[in-house]
Structures are given as C-alpha cells and as structure tokens.
Amino acid sequence: MKETSSVVYLKRNHPDRGPVVKAGKYEKAVGTCRGILFQTLEESLREFFGQVDDDLFKLAENSTSNSQQTIFFDAMRGIRLAKKKLELEYLQLVEDAFQTFWKGGDILSAQRLQAEEEQALSLVEKDELEEELAVTTMVNKANDNFHRDLAMLNARFSYMLGKGDLPLEANPVSPALLALAFKEVLEQWDAELLARIVVYKCFDRTVLSRMGSCYRTMNRFLIDEGVLPELRYPGAVRNQGGGGVHGGGGAPASGGETTDSTVVGEGEESGGVPSLDQIWKYLQQLGAAAALHPLPLPANPQLPVMPRSVLMESLGRLQNEVLADDELEGMDAALLQEYLRQQLTIVLGNGVHGEEKQRVGEPEKRTIDMILALFNHVLEDPNLPDPMRALIARLQIPVLKVAIADPGFLRDEAHPARKFIDELARASIGWRDDGDRSEKSLYHQVKRAVERIVHEYDQDVGLFEEVRAEFATWMAERERVKKIMEQRLAQAVSGEERLTVANMEVDKLLGSLQVETLPEAARKILTGPWKKLLTILWLREGDDGQNWKKAVGIARLMEKYLSSSRRGSFKRDELLTEIPEIISGLKAGFAYISLDPKKSTRLLNGLQGCFIEALRPSDPPSEPVATEEASSAQNEQGEAKEADEPERERDEFDQTVAAISEGTWVRLLPAEGEEGEPLVCKLVWRSKYTGTMVFVDGQGNKAAQLKEEALAQIFREGRGALLEEAQAPLIDRAIRKMMRVLNAEIVGLRLKMPD
Fold first, then answer.
1. What backbone phi and psi angles, to 5 degrees, belong to 668?
2. Are 389 and 333 in contact (CB under 8 A)?
3. pLDDT at 19
C-alpha cells in the first residue's frame, strides 16, 4: 500500500510473538491500560459496523437519484465484505503503535516530517483534502470534548516513561492516533468520496465519541496505582463539552504561542460572541475558508451566476420534498446532516450527471457554508437530547433561506429565527425521553413548531416569531406546572429532612441528660410522650422557640432531681419548690400532644412516687458516682478519638459544590460499570442542616438526591460538570464551539498547505 497519509503514516508490524511492553515498574499497569483500550475499541467497532450498514442503507433508500443510490449500495456491500479484514488490520495498527510507544519508540515524528515534505511538493487533490478535513474535524472535536481527561492521561503516560512533555498526537490512545489508523486501513477500501465521508462520520459517532469513558477509566486506574494521584480534575468543574480554548490536551501545541491561529473575539476571553460575519471575514484574512468544509459546488468563474430566485426555489423544493418526509424523523442528526449536504450538492450543483450550467453566487455560497457549519455545532451541543436534536436538524433549510434573504441573521442575536431555535433548545434542557408523544408532551409541541416552519415558511420571516410566541405561551403554562411540582417536591423532602434532623436533635438532648440513670417512671415520660413533644416543638419552632426551651427546661429539672448520679446534690426545699412547676409543665405538654388523660394520670402518679423517693434523706450511693465517672471517661475517650481523626480538609470540589445555587444545571455521568445515559438535572433545594441536595429533570420530576459530599466526589472523579451555559442561547454556545474547532482546523490546514 502506498504511504498517502498527509499527517502521519503508521507502520504495520506483524510480531511473531505476543506483545512485550517495556515500561519498568509500570509494566502491569500498562498492560491493564491496554486491556481497557482494546475492550472499548472492540465494543465500539462492533457497533460501528452495524451502524454504518444502517446509515448507508437509509441514505440509499432516501436518495433522489439512481447514481447516488448505487454509490451507497455499493459502499454497503463493500463494507460488509471487508468488515473482518478492516477490523483486524485496524486493531493491529493500534496495537503496533501502543507497543512502539511503551518500548520508547516514536510513533510520529519521523513519519510526520516525511509526510510534510511530500505534502509541500504537490497540491492536495480535492477529494483527498475533503477526506483530510473529515479526519481533522473529528479529531479536533474529540480533543475538545475530552481535553481534561487527555491532559491528565498524557501527563501520567509521560511520567511512566520518564519523558518530558508528550505531544498529544504521540499518545497511543489519542483521538489523532485512533482516527489516523482508521484512515490508513480505509485506504484499501475502494469507494466514492460521498460514501467515505459517511463512514468517517459514523466512526466519529460510534468510536471516537465513546473514548471519554475509556480515558476516565484509565485515569482512575492509574490514580489507584499511585501514578500522579495528586493530579486531579480542575476544581472549577465545567461542561466537558465546552471547556478550554485549545483543541489539544492542555497547552497550545507550539510552546504556548497562539498568535494568529486564534479566532478573533474568542468567547470566554473577550466576553462576547462574534457574529458569523466576523468569523467569515477572519477566515478570509487567513485564507482558511476550507476549514468550513464548503459544499463542492461548481466554482468556474466563467459560468453564469444562479439567480437568487432560482436558488430560493431550489431550496424550497428541498425543504418541501426532503425535510417534510416523516421517514427522516428517526434519522440520526449527524446522518441527516450528511444527507442534507448531499441533497444540497445535487440541487445546487445542477443535477446528478455532472453538467455545470450555473454557479451559486459568492455571497450565497458563503452563507450556505456558514449556516451548515453552524448547524454542525448546534447539533453537537451536549445539552440537546437526541430526539430534540433530530427535530431541530430539520430547520436547516428554512434557516438557510432566511439567512440568504436576510443577511441580518448572521449579525443580529435577536433575529426571530435565532430566537426561535434558542427557545426550542432552552425548553429541551434536562428533558428525558419517556416515550410520551401525546399532545401534552414537550416532544409533540416541539415537533409541531418545527413542522409548521418546514411546511409553511416561504419568505415571511414573521412566521418564526409567530410560531415562537405560540410555543412560548405553551411553555409558560408548562413552566407554571413545573414550578408547582418543584415546590411540592422541595416541601416534601424538606419535611422529611426536618423530621430526621428533629429526631437527631431530640436524641442528642436525651443522650446528654443521661436518661438511663433516671427511675423507670421518669424514663417512660422522657422517652415516650415528652420525646414526641420535643420533636413537634423543634419542627414548629426550632431550637430558639420559647415552648421548646420550656420543654427542655422541664426535662433538665427531672434529670437534676431524679438522676441516681445526683442523689443528695440538691436541697429538699428546692425540690419542693420545683415539683409544682414540673407537674404543671408536664400536664401542659401532655395536653399539647393530646395524650390520653388516663395515660397522663398514670405517668404523673408514677412520677410523684419518684419525687417522694427523692425527698427521703439518704447518702449518695457509690455506684451512680462510678457511673458518672465512667460516663465522663467515655466522653473523654470519644473526644480523644475525634481529635485523632481530624476532619478532611475541604478541597476545591467541596467549594464548587458549596457555591452551587438553586436553579443551576449539572450533568452527571453513570458510575464506572453502570449503564445509562448522562443525567442533566437542576438543583431545586438544599438542606441547611445535612447538605442534602435535590435535583429535578426538565419535566420537573425528581431526578437525583445527593449529599454535598457525594456530589463533590462525583466531580472529583470527573463524572460531573456544571452546565453554566445551559441557559445561554444555543446559537451563542454553538458559535463558541465553532470558534474552538476552527482554531484547531486552521492550524491543521496550514500544515497541509504548500508554501
């Protein structure tokens, strides 16, 4: 096979014996990491080959031309025939790179230099550039999504090898290595570019996007093995899909310099979101418009420009004939993206037979490329549930028509079409698909709004505002009901929590009174009806209430005069003076809790007998004194034990959790070994007594109940993130993500372009 990869070429090795890893004392740990990697890859590849078969079949089934249908069916047959060989060769390539890395070899530098020298000698073919961009895009996206896990794994691998800084691409488990290995084995598969791009995107969805859990598992294992255990996730836990500016795993690729490879107005740093117009102008200045993955439309300047009316008519047909198709409802959003690109290429490229009669004007083509690139990032937003993602994907052609007809869409954050998309996305946060598709469900309402735009939009942009207003009215009522549900949940949990705390406070009080040293009649009162009274009073008044203090005072008087450890420590006149107050207080307390009068009389008669016994002169017995001394000794031992076990110092994760306010959204991933989707939920209540936190989903239903310590531990393990931008407009979030990916792609394009 010829060495055609323009970024890195991975050599195939076929060792005669099993793998030998030379990593010193970490050899066993390296072997475990290898097992984690290949278990993840083997499971993901099985899913990949099943999914790519489905994707190609759906595209063939929905194709609007025989030639395109043939391309997808041929690709589907070719993948089926080559499946076993592709899988084995891919795993072998990754195995070779992994072994070479741990034997101290360099899996990149020499090959990269050779590739760059060859690249500088010849222009990149159009199809090859498209393929390179597909690989670069999925690598950059994975680097951005998993940058924290990759940075820590990089540091640990470097430490285990005893090397200095390790370039991210040189890591044998990095997205770059995994993607380039896939590109290498795919070279032997003869298929049209159209089908190859579909395969790359499927690989991204089913393999690369699953590597995050693999990286987290490796990091946790290496922490347990003592490899840089102090290296943890940053304290300010942020959305894993939206953090960091650089596409790599921590530092910039070239000595920390960003200079002109950073898009102007970069979200977090500048405090604002640049318009799509500004981004386009910046790309033009750098000569890097190819980073947008432009549609392959006719570009011959000799061709006449397609009139805008013809362009809009063509887009209208696509909107009505393709996006209105109910069969697209269940299609994966990424697959729908590729399908739309193909349909746009056919509709705007003058048919399927290759004849070029007209070309799309530059302003319109620029708008098309910008909107498609924007929607790529809109649909990758991790806060969108998959069913909602698929619905929003169907808005692309109407939005494209809006942007062409009204350039203000690219600049105006308050544009009706942008506000409409943002409204749908905001409503979808935390929504969990329970299968409900009735008219009362959020899914039905979002689908209804989307279908009105798809079926009715022609030129009147006011339709977006009309549909948005209708949807907002429905959402306002839904939010009102959700608020009631959240309040009821908070009240119920708060009630349970206060009862638990009240019981703890009362038990603590009774424990301090040494109830076990009291006569049986007094014990029955304090541990029975009086305990109930104390609990009720604490719940109603707290420990500052006057009735609570009176009830505690009576209990302390009973302990003072009746405890066997205090016999002889008081004057008879004092007791005679206090007895009426104690009895009247007990009667009032029994009446407060509606105690049965007969039971009240029996208890008070028994207590009077205790007082009579206490009034008899007697010497203090020795045993109670011994009991008191023993109790004192136990208390001292308990205090000494607490002193020996100092409270764990609060770290940045505890501080992050303590700072979370009600209304904050978080994403929680399943624990290691557990199945399930990430949980997106909102904090609605927090206990000031025990630190219990209650979260709800987008429907207002209880989603999780955690102690502060448990949530801090989830953040510590990298399984949780604050969704600080969850309430920010979806379009703004997508533009920020778009800028980060463009940064990395601009750098990649410069490496590929000849001087």
1. -120, 125
2. yes
3. 42
